[in-house]
Amino acid sequence: MTPALSRPARWGVLTTAILALLFDGVELGLMPVASLSVSKSLLGSAYTPTLGGDWFARFTAALMLGAAVGGIVLGGLGDRVGRTRALGVSVLFYSVFAGLGALVETQGQMLLLRFLVGLGVGGVWPNAVALAAECWPDKSRPLVAGLMGAALNGGILLLSQVVRIWTLTPDSWRWLFQWGALPAVLGLAALTVVPESPLWRNRRVTASHGGGNDLSKRLPVFWTLFTPPLLQTTLVGILIGSIPLVGAWSASKWMIPWADAVAGGAAPGYKASAQGYWALGAVLGSFCGAQIAQAFGRRRAYAWMSLASAALTGFLFVGTRPLAPGFLPTVFAQGFVATLFFGWLPLYLPELFPTEVRAAGSGIAYNVGRFVTAAGVLAAGGLFVALGGSYPRIGAVCGLVYLLGVIAIRWAPDTTGTDLDAPRTSTPANP
What we know:
Largest sheet: none
Structural class: mainly alpha
Shape: globular
Helix content: over 70%
CATH superfamily: MFS general substrate transporter like domains
CATH topology: Growth Hormone, Chain: A
Order of helices and strands: HHHHHHHHHHHHHHHHHHH
Mean pLDDT: 86
Number of helices: 19
Low-confidence stretches: none
CATH class: Mainly Alpha
């Protein structure tokens, strides 16, 4: 058995992981609230609403592309040099490059910085999840996974409340990017004082003495993940990790501009209210996803989450509308159900992969969907036009992606009861 960390050390690890994911969420939510102010300021008289929307899509795609690359590359770094080192590097990436956003003078400069921020955003998730999962006993992992899932959406909720108090304008937006540099302190702490995963450390020591079955030293990490016996594991992880991510960005996000388009003139704050209802539901849903997986089994929980997300997303866009009495409660419910996945994934993905490639495997499984999302964001304008400029139509059509989860989960193993410390190199067997 691998020696366990002391209780204070475990709490230090968990606090670091939660804070890293909280500020990760802040970065994910930053440009949706700041993009138009940034574009109006930097484009000046050349700004038009259409151009502003086009740049918002570019900024979002750059962040998603960076996150996809960062999740894969920095996830692999975590298997090579340690979870805490890679986590610290990831936090420094999104903090430093977010802070530099306060100094930009052109849209192109901001676009490049959003890609670099994305590298850190993507790298945090696999390393934080692997670190916390390996430092806490198996019986505690559902609670730990729920807290980390909630932290990511908690960052989005935190940011929404900050900008409600201190509004952003074309003349005052740089302060928000300066604020985004503060988590650099957390990154330095992860590099210097946060204890390393004893499970990862034990595997490396064993491998250095010629023992164990350290795949990450015998073969390049990505070759290991995409060849037998881990090929099936990796492909299954990618599929079940991509569906909720693509659904979240291609379907859920349309409710906010829809609320603004319908209610913006009569109730300017309605969009912020809708975002707040959704974010509150998302925080609760992200926490509960792991608990539901533990109570009902990994595969059954995922299947029901997929069905419920498709149904609620469809009802949101075709069964109600902004300013209707049931709209905001439905937004809350959709936010809750559609983000159950993001508590489920931090629990399930680490169970799929052996310690030697756990961070890289989790990072690939979670972040490949961001490549699809980046392409989808750029194509969304064309789809929106093709559907007659109808927010309900595009939201309802994109929400059907969740139904793929009912099919995909049939190929996934049920890892309930998996011991992370147990050596293995292949997909856990289906019961």
